[in-house]
Batch of 2 targets.
Target 1
Amino acid sequence: DQQVKQNSPSLSVQEGRISILNCDYTNSMFDYFLWYKKYPAEGPTFLISISSIKDKNEDGRFTVFLNKSAKHLSLHIVPSQPGDSAVYFCAASDPGGYQKVTFGTGTKLQVIP
Amino acid sequence: KAGVTQTPRYLIKTRGQQVTLSCSPISGHRSVSWYQQTPGQGLQFLFEYFSETQRNKGNFPGRFSGRQFSNSRSEMNVSTLELGDSALYLCASSFLGVYEQYFGPGTRLTVT
């Protein structure tokens, strides 16, 4: 049972435009959400996070939006740059799970120069 | 500050054999988690250790086990390897109570 879902396996965006990566979850107990970026032959790198008490968090070009009623979050990258080309993983954690984090299957973003 | 290190980086084993993978967390990080990454499955949580105790375990068979040492270094072991165990095994460390994890580069295990 995939509790964190990223339904788009891939996404292509022109350089300078907005990239929007989506993530849905089913476990209403999740209270903290994270996005990681992964380049080939490297481990994932933490990008940005959001607590369930917020609906938006920004860090430079990256913004994460959380819609709790829809159990949906999204990552916006503006403007997109070729160096953003990577696999992006959405992840979630619940307070009862200590530091158990559930990851989605990833979305491969390609930013075209 | 040194990052998370994992050894070996690549490994080829035969079905039925066993394998041990090693992870050294970032200095000061006492929580260590292990994940299996396969194409189309994302990162599947294996287990998490803190202070030499396994606190969480994912839905993997008992062939997958791990341990943590007093210096927070961790090992995971897979016995009786199957072809389906071929994957990238990732180790991540963090401070206690912090969800943001730092990942190592992974160990690529191929079972033939």
Note: Chain B has a mean pLDDT of 94.
Target 2
Amino acid sequence: EAGVTQSPTHLIKTRGQQATLRCSPISGHTSVYWYQQALGLGLQFLLWYDEGEERNRGNFPPRFSGRQFPNYSSELNVNALELEDSALYLCASSPDPSSSYNEQFFGPGTRLTVL
Amino acid sequence: KNEVEQSPQNLTAQEGEFITINCSYSVGISALHWLQQHPGGGIVSLFMLSSGKKKHGRLIATINIQEKHSSLHITASHPRDSAVYICAVINYNTDKLIFGTGTRLQVFP
């Protein structure tokens, strides 16, 4: 069974640009979560999507947004990039939408560098 | 003060040693995760527990809800166990996942 996949592996942008990160969950999983791990900091919860809807959101500004498609894949968009947005962005999927954080399966991450 | 605290922050061990990593939290939770992050960033979910104890191979996780404390134990540690171990709790009220800052473990042969 294929795991959670993310693309691209690395992404380099300049300040002010927009970044789009993609995630494909494990087949059969309907929930997708996004996390940010900035250098020297722990993981922080960004967004949770389930069945195409945003279910919960972390303490991030509105320029962090996303969506979930009918096939349950997801995009994370970061607008007006700032230097401190440089981080590893992790996606995770979960099979059980009734419990917000059942066991999660993590993808390999996308490393975003903002210059 | 962080809502989830882990100790120690860094841990070195000789191969074969018994390892304990601790996690304390200050919020009401519905469940707690132990995660393993290898160099390069890949994360593996080790356990999710809401009470008692779980065991998988050489790994054991326990939780005491009354004391708001969880421990991750590694028996017969091996160099391949070298990684960052992260504790994360689901806040019962907000339904959000809150992460500890991790414990960096290095096991030497």
Note: The first strand of chain A starts at residue 5 and ends at 7.
